[in-house]
Specification:
With 296 residues, the protein is of the alpha/beta class. It contains 8 helices and 15 strands. Helices cover 29% and strands 22% of the residues.
């Protein structure tokens, strides 16, 4: 099931567009993960999206420290969109094409390693990492969900990132669920065979809270830092339920995602941004948003 209330309009461009070149912009997505003006920006950053709230604050700080900058254009999409941009030089949002080449890339370690096989990096370094996962529910918790064992209940609908379009996050969530449940006899849980599942379409960090808010799902397992973000910005709509002691750096039994930052050119301005993003100040920003510095 997809969170899609709109008609599926065909493309209306003057040339044929390959499916891999398009980005679906459902009501829950809009263009929220494309930030700024790529034509006038002096710095361009392509990043995965799950830590978008921390990246925004970090880039905002750099912009304020460099008021002469025309602007920073940055994307916070799943890695597949980033790969399309790198290969094709652009992406279609409906019938609008966005073209841009990045100065910096941020993404999961294995993704950046893959990109490095075809693109030369001027530099790269360990960046940040997740701490684990948490549950989110509608404000007031109408289904009285208290922990991971409740995800076995037959009366709840579980929202999750799509296993096809966001395989990486889906795998993190399913692995964490199975590890926390222990030896669960039903291997269909959290799969297409599980009829309680409600999947996002393309970008779960925008779509999942919408599925809960519109009462199309009752609970979701998401990165802890996403759960923290939703509870902070939607306090009257979303609550979160920790699945570990929140004072711990990383949560036992949870899959952890680690991110790498890479610089693609020798430009002095991008070098300054790279150095800034690798600083302790930015690590402190990320810690406030529920992530940690990459421990290697």
């Amino acid at each position: 099931m997809f969170d899609d209330q709109s008609l599926d309009w065909p493309e209306e461009t003057t040339r044929t567009i390959e499916a891999s070149e398009t980005w679906y912009a459902a009501p829950g997505n809009l263009c929220l993960d494309f930030h700024g003006d790529p034509r006038t920006a002096e710095l361009i950053v392509f990043s995965d999206g799950n830590h978008h709230m921390a990246l925004r604050e970090a880039l905002q700080g750099f912009q304020q420290a460099h008021p002469q900058l025309q602007g920073i254009f940055y994307m916070t999409t799943p890695p597949g969109v980033v790969m399309t941009m790198l290969k094709k030089g652009g992406i279609y949002l409906g019938n609008l094409r966005i073209s841009a080449k990045p100065n910096l890339l941020i993404g999961p370690d294995n993704f950046i390693e893959t990109v490095g096989k075809t693109h030369a990096f001027a530099d790269h370094a360990n960046f940040m990492q997740s701490r684990g996962c948490a549950l989110i529910v509608r404000h007031g918790n109408p289904k009285k969900i208290t922990g991971i064992q409740d995800l076995k209940r037959g009366d709840i609908r579980i929202a999750c990132s799509n296993p096809v379009t966001e395989t990486a996050s889906y795998t993190v969530y399913r692995n964490t669920l199975l590890q926390l449940l222990g030896n669960h006899p039903d291997e269909t849980i959290y799969t297409r065979e599980d009829t309680r599942m409600v999947y996002s379409r393309n970008i779960h960090h925008r779509e999942i809270p919408g599925l809960l808010a519109k009462q199309q799902a009752d609970v979701a397992l998401v990165y802890y830092h996403l759960a923290l973000r939703y509870a902070r910005i939607f306090p009257d709509q979303i609550d979160y339920i920790p699945l570990a002691d929140e004072t711990l750096d990383t949560f036992p039994g949870h899959d952890i995602t680690k991110y790498t930052i890479a610089r693609l050119d020798m430009d002095d301005l991008s070098s300054q941004l790279y150095t800034y993003l690798c600083s302790q100040h930015v690590r402190d920003i990320y810690k406030h948003h529920g992530l940690l510095g990459h421990t290697g």
